[in-house]
Design goal:
The protein contains nine helices and six strands, in the order ββααβαααβαααββα. 52% of the residues lie in helices and 10% in strands. The chain has a six-stranded parallel sheet with strand order 1-6-5-2-3-4, with helices on both faces. It has 208 residues and is α/β, with parallel strands linked by helices.
Length: 208
């Protein structure tokens, strides 16, 4: 994380935090992925061990204590791309292929069980998400107004477009200010609580 990174959110280390029944968490895309994507289908260059351990552990604690979890439709779109990307990379690794000669489109259309495998994995993950969490509603008119001022909004911080729309939906709800995420960019948002195991964010917060 760069030296110019400015922490504005309230940061909570999930290794040391205990969720409470009154908590209302929006769960970010990456956390659903760590919890629900089949670990045996993750290639060796995939995610780190801490992500597969601490986030599922914290979500399990949140569910057990009665905290309320939410998912965003934006996350579902991002998650589908992530499922496809991981499935493609695993297929390339497993079959000793070269990404320059075997593209993602090749995987979709010619790989045995390629596209169908992606759909099956995503359907199973989405079904589990609905068991774990409630949908965070968004107003399409609000989204349109935001997009009409896209340039100004994107120059206000480090968040990508989808993440900014999720934050906007959180604040619009007036009852969700907490997010569980490994994405350090959320730490640049004021007036929210970020629950994370990302050491870069935790260290930056201690210096701020």
């Amino acid at each position: 994380m760069s030296s110019s990174f400015s922490v504005k959110a309230s940061i909570f280390n999930i290794r040391e935090s205990s969720p409470k029944e009154r908590d209302r968490f929006l769960v970010d895309t990456n956390v659903w992925y760590y919890l629900l994507f089949p670990q045996e289908l993750i290639p060796p260059d995939g995610i780190g061990g801490y992500q597969l351990h601490f986030y599922p552990e914290f979500l399990a604690k949140a569910k057990k204590c009665g905290a309320t979890l939410y998912f965003s439709s934006i996350s579902l779109v991002e998650l589908f791309r992530l499922v496809e990307s991981t499935s493609y990379r695993f297929y390339v690794y497993k079959n000793g292929l070269d990404t320059e000669n075997f593209s993602r489109k090749d995987f979709r259309y010619s790989a045995e069980n390629g596209w169908q495998g992606v759909l099956d994995n995503y359907d199973a993950i989405y079904s589990n998400i609905k068991d774990w969490a409630n949908h965070l509603p968004r107003n399409e008119h609000d989204d349109l107004a935001y997009l009409n001022n896209l340039h100004d909004n994107l120059t206000k911080g480090y968040l990508e477009l989808g993440d900014q729309i999720m934050i906007k939906a959180m604040k619009k709800s007036k009852f969700i200010s907490q997010i569980i995420t490994d994405d350090g960019d959320f730490a640049t948002c004021k007036d929210i609580e970020v629950y994370t195991a990302n050491n870069s964010v935790i260290k930056a917060n201690k210096k701020s």
